[in-house]
Amino acid sequence: MNKVLVLGAHLDDSVIAMGGTIRKLVKSGCEVNVFCFGNGDEAYVEPGKQQQAVERFKLGGKNAHEILGCKTLECFDVGDFEVNATAGFYRQCIGAIRKYQPDVIFGHDFAEYFQHHGMARMSIDAWNQARWNCSADYGTEPWFAKRYFQFEVEDILQNPSHYVDISDEFEDKMAAMAQYDAEGGHLGGWQDVMRARARFYGSRIGVKYAEVFRQNFYLPEKIQDVETFFK
Questions:
Q1: DSSP 3-state assignment of 7?
Q2: Reading across the β-sheet that carries 210-215, which strands appear in turn?
Q3: Are strands 104-108 and 147-151 parallel, antiparallel or unpaired?
Q4: Sign of the CA dihedral 227, 231, 1, 90?
Q5: Residue 226 carries which DSSP code?
Q6: How would you write the pLDDT of the chain (231 residues) with one tens digit per residue?
Q7: Residue 133 neighbours by CB under 8 Å, 6+ apart
Q8: b/e string for 95-109 if b means 16 or more Cβ within 10 A?
Q9: DSSP-assigned beta bridge partners for residue 147
Q10: What pLDDT does 184 receive?
Q11: Greatest pairwise CA separation for the chain in angstroms
Q12: Are the beta carbons of 153 and 147 closer than 8 angstroms?
C-alpha cells in the first residue's frame, strides 16, 4: 500500500487544496494521513464566538476527512494565527514524517500568506531533516519520502507540474468542505470559488474538474535506470 502524508497549516487546508485528490488516492488503495496545526479559532464572524468556532472546526475536520476516507487526521491544536516557522513546529513536522512514513508528501506553496509560507518552509526542510539520524525524541527511525508536491489553497499555484482529474471525486470534496462551513459564513462564496477553480484546471486537461500540484526538487531524485525518464 502506498502511503501519503498531507502537511497542512490549518484543519481545512487539506480539503480545500486537494480534497478530490485525497479521495482519489484512497479509492485507489492508498493510505492517506493528514497532520496540521491551526484549530480554526479565527473562523468566527460574531464577537465572543471563538470557542464555538474551534469546536465546530474540530468536528468539521473529523467529519470531512472521514468522508474523504483518510486513515488519520492529527491536529497539533494551536491558534490559526500561531502557525509559523518555529523550531517547535519544525520538530513536529519531522516527527509526523517519521511517524507516518509516507512515500509521498503534499504540502503548501511559498507564494501564500505568512502562515502557509511558514508551513511550506518547515515542511520541505522537514522532508530533508527526517531522513537524518538526529532529533531522536521525534522518532528514532529516520525516514525518506520519495517525492514532495506543493499545493495551492489561497493563491494560484505557479507552473504546476501535475494536474489530477477529480471529476468523479469533486462532489465528495464539496461535501467534505461543507462540514466546516455549510452556510458560507467566514468563507463566504467558497462553493463558487472551488467549483470555478476546479473547472478551469479541468479545462486545461480536457476533463470536468481537476486539482493542481507542483513537484518540489529540493531533494534530488536519484535515477539509476534511464528508462525511468520515459515511464
A1: strand
A2: 72-78, 31-38, 3-10, 104-108, 147-151, 210-215, 162-165
A3: parallel
A4: positive
A5: G
A6: 799 999 999 999 999 999 999 999 999 999 999 999 999 999 988 899 999 999 999 999 999 999 999 999 999 999 999 999 999 999 999 999 999 999 999 999 999 999 999 999 999 999 999 999 999 999 989 999 999 999 999 999 999 999 999 999 999 999 999 999 755 567 778 889 999 999 999 999 999 999 999 999 999 888 888 887 776
A7: 142
A8: bbbbbbbbebbbbbb
A9: 104
A10: 53
A11: 60
A12: no
Q: Is the pTM of this model over 0.70?
A: yes
What Å distances lie between residue 146 and 13, 149, 231, CA to CA? 22, 10, 16
C-alpha cell, 138: 521525534
**CA-closest candidate to residue 177, choices 64, 72, 75:** 64
Q: Taking phi first (over 0 means left), then psi (-120 to 50 degrees means alpha), and beta for anything else, what does residue 189 get?
A: left
**Measuring CA to CA, how many Å separate 91 from each of 26, 71, 76, 79, 96?**
27, 22, 12, 18, 9
Q: Cell numbers at residue 121, please?
A: 518552509
For residue 64 the three cell numbers come to: 470531512
CA–CA gap between residue 106 and residue 224 (Å, rounded): 25
User: Which secondary-structure segment (H or E) carries 173?
Assistant: helix 170-181
C-alpha cell at 78: 494551536
Task: Please tell me whether residue 74 adopts helix, strand or coil conformation.
Answer: strand
